[in-house]
Amino acid sequence: VGASTGNWASQLIDEGYASKIVSFEPLSNSYRVLKSRCSEFPNWECHNFAIGDVIGQTSLNISKNNESSSVSKILNTHIEAFPESQIVREETIEIKTIDNFLENRPELKGNIFAKVDVQGFEKKVLMGASYSLDRISILQLEMGLEALYHDDLLFSDWLKHLKDLKFHPLYIQNAFSHQETKKLLQVDCIFINESFGKS
Fold first, then answer.
1. Distance of alpha carbon 196 from alpha carbon 96, whole angstroms
2. CA 31 → CA 17, 48, 66, 83, distances in Å?
3. Phi/psi zone of residue 102: left (φ > 0), alpha (ψ -120 to 50 degrees), beta?
4. What is the pTM of this model?
5. Distance between alpha carbon 27 and the CA centroid of its chain, in Å?
6. How far apart are CA 184 and CA 186, in angstroms?
7. Going residue by residue through the chain (199 aa), what tens digit of pLDDT does each one get?
């Protein structure tokens, strides 16, 4: 979710992964690159819409650096840390939910690894997956140590929230630091569903 141009999935394929990949990317110019890469791998499909907590249309805030773009409003703390994240335009996009998508895809039964990189919109993505969380075995999220987007849920709050959803931390790594001070601002975290591996 938030596939950008597909670098992460492409790396998995290069390392030998051959199972199903489903990518979602709402930004039109990033999606064009993603779609071209998907066409080269039969088990990789992509969709040109955002994932959130509603079905309809919304506005995407597009940064000078495409990968900082978000449905959420970017805060000055982010722009100060990385000036390339400054918003340059908006784009009207489609938005759907994981629940809605999986309801129409019964063949994707479960044991899903969900990588969510949506720049401060992660909480809304999970709100739209309330009926599908039992199909997700492993969840990867980007979490802020400081607020970088409006209504951003911070790291300590995420730990409690995901514990309530029966997801427990498995791995944490650095994700994003202040360009000049090198202060750590975001981490990538992998969580495991407590029911994973149980009969």
1. 26
2. 22, 6, 11, 24
3. alpha
4. 0.92
5. 13
6. 6
7. 999 999 999 999 999 999 999 999 999 999 999 999 999 999 999 999 999 999 999 999 999 988 888 998 999 999 999 999 999 999 999 999 999 999 999 888 888 999 999 988 999 999 999 999 999 999 999 999 999 998 888 999 999 999 999 999 999 999 889 989 999 999 999 999 998 866 5
Number of neighbouring beta carbons within 10 Å of residue 53: 17
SS3 for the chain, per residue?
A: CCCCCCHHHHHHHHCCCCCCEEEECCCHHHHHHHHHHHCCCCCEEEECCEECCCCEEEEEEEECCHHHCECCCECHHHHHHCHHHCEEEEEEEEEECHHHHHHCCCCCCCCEEEEECCCCCHHHHHHCCCCCHHHEEEEEEEEECCCCECCCCEHHHHHHHHHHCCEEEEEEEEEEECCCCCCEEEEEEEEEECCCCCC
9-23 residues labelled b (16+ CB within 10 A) or e (exposed): bbebbeeeeeeebbb
What pLDDT, on a 0 to 100 scale, did the predictor assign at position 197? 67
Q: What amino acid is encoded at 100 in this protein?
A: N
Strand 184-193 relative to strand 167-177: parallel, antiparallel, unpaired? antiparallel
Closest CA to 114 of 178, 93, 101: 101
Q: What tokens appear for 94 in the block? A: 């489609």
Residue in this structure with the two tokens 């730990």, named with its chain if needed: 159
